[in-house]
Design brief:
alpha/beta, 5-stranded parallel beta sheet, 3-stranded antiparallel beta sheet, 17 helices, 10 strands, 11% strand
Length: 329
């Protein structure tokens, strides 16, 4: 017998059957120190385009998984206000039933309803990012409608007459949005008088015209909504502050005035971290940052914003500095 040296305890690269390149890595010790790949984190995004598009860019690069995609939605359901966010989460959890014809005015994919297996995705969510883009909510029988989707749903009524199109525009702008009850009633009844049929769709439209209401949320309302959201989402929450648009020199336009401060104050009172994209936008100002509407990020800039969102997510949830929940479980 003879003492086993280190050479005998650790088979040579050739004995292990490694190729030339692998043998070189072995000799440098790289095989021993290379960390295993970390799976992408699971994010529940509650917002509109400024949040969803950069998150989608991360998903396409396999840097992040999106809970809403994993839950089976063909198109991302948006949540533009705080109560719109809580409504969406309750719908995702199966706690709230929304009739499909109402969902037509709520979400871009109004057909899909997550099943039990898809709802379980929420239990694997690592972080929830929320961006509220408006304090103005359209309420129909307790359901929060997406203002852009609503306008698409009533567009066929424009064909009734020129007067109908004008009345609908004023019904939304002067009546519902500004909470002017007299104007809301006046213009809705003008359009209803032009609807001659009695189909299910026409009856639903008449109900919508008569019962839709607008409300403007203040700081206390946003605080209450965020507090409810904390109880609904079993994951850390980070709040992305919203800048409505940007002036030619890069200054942000906040609309309505005070909304951004209300959001920040409500979030901070609940201990929720906030991220403001304004400094990032200003650092890149002069480049391809915004689309022509000065509101949406340019496609080329979305990956830049996405990296900040990812960094913010890891700060908002320190556990993500180690491993995503899906791996930990």
């Amino acid at each position: 017998p003879f003492p086993l040296g280190e050479r005998h305890c650790h088979p040579s690269p050739r004995a292990r059957g490694l190729g030339t390149r692998a043998r070189a890595r072995y000799e440098r010790g790289l095989d021993a120190v290379a960390p295993p790949p970390t799976p992408p984190i699971m994010c529940l995004g509650l917002g509109g385009c400024p949040l969803s598009n950069p998150l989608t860019a991360l998903m396409k690069r396999k840097r992040m998984r999106l809970a809403l995609k994993d839950m089976g939605f063909a198109q991302t359901p948006f949540a533009l206000s705080v109560n719109g966010a809580t409504q969406l989460v309750r719908f995702l959890r199966g706690d709230l039933d929304i009739p499909q014809w109402v969902r037509n005015s709520c979400y871009a994919d109004p057909v899909h309803v997550p099943n039990a297996e898809q709802r379980a995705v929420l239990n694997r969510t690592d972080i929830c990012l929320v961006e509220m883009s408006t304090p103005i909510e359209f309420d129909y029988l307790g359901y929060i409608l997406n203002q852009n989707r609503l306008r698409e749903q009533i567009e066929p009524l424009y064909a009734l007459s020129v007067e109908a199109k004008k009345a609908l525009t004023r019904w939304i702008g002067e009546g519902v949005q500004k909470q002017n009850e007299d104007a809301r009633r006046k213009y809705s009844e003008m359009v209803i008088a032009m609807i001659r049929g009695d189909s299910a769709e026409e009856r639903q439209m008449v109900s919508l015209l008569r019962r839709l209401r607008g409300r403007h949320l203040g700081e206390a309302d946003i605080h209450a909504g965020l507090k409810m959201l904390i109880g609904l989402v079993d994951a850390p929450i980070g709040v992305v502050l919203h800048n409505y648009s940007y002036m030619p020199d890069g200054r942000p336009v906040i609309f309505p005035a005070g909304f951004k401060d209300d959001t920040r104050n409500a979030a901070q009172a609940l201990g929720l971290p906030c991220y403001d994209p304004l400094p990032l936008v200003l650092r890149h100002w002069g480049g391809d940052v915004l689309m022509e509407d000065a509101r949406h990020y340019a496609r080329a800039f979305e990956p830049v914003v996405a990296e900040d969102y990812l960094a913010f997510a890891r700060l908002a949830s320190p556990r993500l500095l180690f491993e995503p929940r899906a791996q930990a479980d």
